[in-house]
Amino acid sequence: MEKLKKFFREVWGEAKRTHWPNRQELLVSTSVVILILVVMGVYFFLLDLALSGGIRAILRALGIG
Predict the structure, then answer these.
(1) Main-chain phi, psi angles of 48, to 5 degrees
(2) How far apart are CA 22 and CA 30, in angstroms?
């Protein structure tokens, strides 16, 4: 039981030493993450569109599709 108390005491100490972002830092970080997600989503959508179109054209040329 003493080890468990020591563990939680150390966890609490680490949590107090942690730098927690303020509201402005949190909003900026969240905006950056959302922007990256949107950009990557559009990128993968376009890549998928191009690759599926290319594969479809190859299959049509081979008379398979």
Answers:
(1) -65, -40
(2) 12
- 11 is written with which tokens? 């966890």
Q: Tokens at residue 2, please? A: 């003493």
Residues 6+ apart with CB under 8 A from 56: 65
Distances in Å between the Cα of 51 and the Cα atoms of 3, 33, 41, 60 are: 57, 27, 15, 14
Mean pLDDT, rounded, for 43-63: 96
User: Distance (Å, rounded) from C-alpha 14 to C-alpha 20?
Assistant: 12
What SS3 state is found at 22? coil
Is the pTM higher than 0.90? The answer reads: no
